[in-house]
Amino acid sequence: MRAQNGLEPFAHRCRVYYEDTDAGGVVYYVNYLKFMERARTERLRQLGFSQSQLADDNLLFVVHSSEARYHAPARLDDELRVTAQVLELNRASLRFVQQVWREKDETLLCEGQFLVAAVRADTFKPRAIPPQLRHAFAADGSGNQSNAGE
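RE: above sequence
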């Protein structure tokens, strides 16, 4: 999947471990959400922001809503490529579109969208995404900026 600007979306690589699988030897469905969470975190890190730094600045990102579709199973030792692309950048939220691919045969395993809200770490009330973070996403060509209030 290519971003609207023609660039490849950010991708994080990981491997399926025994702890990720169920009794049938396939990745348990909820673990795809964990893989996607890690990719979003690594995306922030690539832009120069860490979750701990943001928390120190009284900012947390919380998942407001999620949607996932499962296409094929991943199995023990599969190497995965997990993408994280900002589809929409609002004043106090980001909408990510994400995919999980098996590397060896380029099979799409799972895809989803996540609305991630910015909240104050001390009160969990919504807050604006800091300008430096908004600019980092915008400069990278990620997301369609919106002036919509949250």
